[in-house]
Structure formats: C-alpha cells, structure tokens
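Box 4.2: Ligand-aware structure prediction
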Amino acid sequence: MFAASRVFGAAQRRAFSASARDLSKVTVLGAAGGIGQPLSLLLKLNPRVTDLALYDIRGGPGVAADISHINTASKVTGYEPTPSGLDAALKGAEIVLIPAGVPRKPGMTRDDLFNTNASIVRDLAKAAAKSAPDANILVISNPVNSTVPIVAEIFKAAGVYNPKRLFGVTTLDVVRASRFVSEIKKTDPADENIVVVGGHSGVTIVPLFSQSSHPDLVGNANLLKRVQFGGDEVVQAKDGAGSATLSMAMAGARFAESLLKAKTQSGVIEPTFVDSPLYKDQGIDFFASKVELGPNGVEKIMDVGKITSEEQTLLDACLADLKKASCSEDSLPEHAH
Ligand code: NAD
Ligand code: LMR
C-alpha cells in the first residue's frame, strides 16, 4: 500500500496543517475512472490538499463517499453529473486534473482516441474556463499532444488563457524511464530522475540519458523502446481492459504535489508539456521540457540543454511528429461541435 506517512513525512504534515495560506482545492474530472479513483485516493493522502472535488459523468458521489472515510483532514465532495454539479466542482479550484476520456485497447494508437476524447476535453475545458479560469489545468486524457492545445484554444476563445497554468502531464514517462534505468543499473529508483522531453506518444517521447549519471545508456535500443512504448506494454498486458491507471495515478499525484509544493518552495522542477517558446519558430507551440514550477504555475521553461548527436536524431523525429499534432478547435471532429 502507498502509505501517506512514507510519502509525506511528519514534519511536512505538521508544516502543512491548516494555515489559510495553504488551503488548496483540487478537482478531479473523471474521478470514477481507472486513473481517477487511485488518483483521488492519493490526493486524499496528501496533506497539502484541503478540499478534494470529485466529478465524473457516473459514480463521482460514490467514489467521494468511499474516500471521505479515510482519516486525513481534507474535505471530499462528490458532484452530480449535471452542468451545475460540474461548475460547483470547479469553483475555487487551484488545480484541476483531467483524466476523463476513453483509454486505448490493443492495436490502437493514442491518436485513435482523438475523436472521442477531444470533445470530452473540450467540454470540460469550457466549464473550467467559466468556473475556474485561474486554476492550473493538468491534462492527462490522451492524446496529450493534441488535448493540451485544445484546452488552450478553449481558454483563448473565452478570453482567459494563461499559458503559465496549462500542463500536459508527461510525468509517467519520467517515472518509467527512472524505474527502467534503476532496474538496469541496480540503483535505488528514488535516486534516478531521468529527463524526458518532447511529447507523450511513441517517438515524441525523448529520454535524455546523457544528462543522467548513466550516459552510457544513450544508444540502448531496448531501454529507449521501453520508455517510448511503455504505454503499449501495459495496454497489451491488460488485454482490452484499458491502459496504465495505477502508475498514472501516482504520476499525476506527484505532479500535483510538485505544483502545490512550488507555492512556497523554489527549485521545484518537473518535465511537462507546456506552451513553450523553444520550437515556435518550427511551428511547434507545445513542448515538454524541464519546467521550474512556482506560485504562478510555470516559473521558467528550460531548453533541452546539451545532448548527444544520437539524442539530437531522436529529437528531430520528435519535432517532426509534434508538428502534425498541433490542433485548433477548428480541427475538432464534426460531431464534437
Ligand atoms: P477510464 O475509462 O477507466 O476512466 C475514464 C473516466 O472518465 C470514466 O470514469 C468516465 O465516466 C469519465 N468520463 C468520460 N467522459 C467524461 C466527462 N465528459 N466528464 C467527466 N468524466 C468523464 O479511463 P482511464 O484508464 O482512467 O484513462 C483516462 C484517460 O487517461 C485516457 O484517455 C487515457 O489514454 C489517458 N492516460 C493518459 C496517461 C498520460 O500519461 N497522460 C496515462 C494513462 C492514461
Ligand atoms: C501511457 O503512457 O501509459 C498512457 O498514455 C496510456 C496509453 O495509452 O499508453
């Protein structure tokens, strides 16, 4: 079991007991799903979260009732699947996590989810732009490379777009890369923090082993394949029952925790897919690189730094692919309008 006491130490729990400054409402949209449930559980165990709002088109109140019995201080509320329920779930939120949408089945790419998930994310983004325009929006629903630009377009159309507050959650790629490296090198995975840049699908996932303490891993084709296609490993193993949920819940909870921590601490850095200046000249508006987080969301976007020629080749392939993913609301499927 993922014990809160092992993740959040006693000192941290005391430091974040109840001062008004630390009141943090976190909303999960898609809270009754495969990711939504364990993610909500982990957020309930996080002492930085004081108010947890759970919304789903089915089952939100049930999940909330269950989680609310856990003996941590935060208040948990489940909302009815109505427009007013959604608005109430969003009102006052500081962080909105969106894992709503369908997962892959074997043989599908993440892009195959676009037709269904684009409209789900679009509608939830419209509600967030209205009821939580200043919240940090954390997009988990796939294809992340396209769903994040959709949220940006919706917020722009509503006149409330703040690029510092929109994040595609790519933390699972970092978590996987770090774990796979620790298995090869027989190290403590907690000591590994592999930088992964680009996007969140196949060749757009670019791990930079040259920047780790194991530069010899650049060129390890099997490791690269596991990092780029780790999602497929899980989809195949689940054999039609969905994609990664538990590891994703951990990754989403970690990213939310980093954002909350960055309200009061400097130097909190996570790779994440954001509106980025790095490759705009190549027509790429969103890119994942190391981002320093702060009280206003994005504090500083770092460039990819020094990489090897082999990694540059991977980055070139990534950029070519990302160019195709950029999307505006106009390119939403007809039924989504
Ligand atoms: P799931 O089907 O188990 O759960 C999705 C939930 O979303 C369901 O409970 C469903 O009722 C809900 N939902 C659907 N439409 C909704 C709406 N309009 N409003 C609110 N809730 C709605 O799927 P899952 O396994 O939890 O995966 C969810 C998404 O996350 C998928 O698109 C998957 O590809 C993606 N994912 C992303 C990453 C990542 O690294 N970013 C990792 C794993 C999965
Ligand atoms: C993952 O990386 O596990 C997720 O994006 C889900 C998927 O479809 O692979």
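In the box above, the bound molecule is (2S)-2-hydroxybutanedioic acid. Residues 25-168 form a domain with the Rossmann fold fold (CATH 3.40.50.720).
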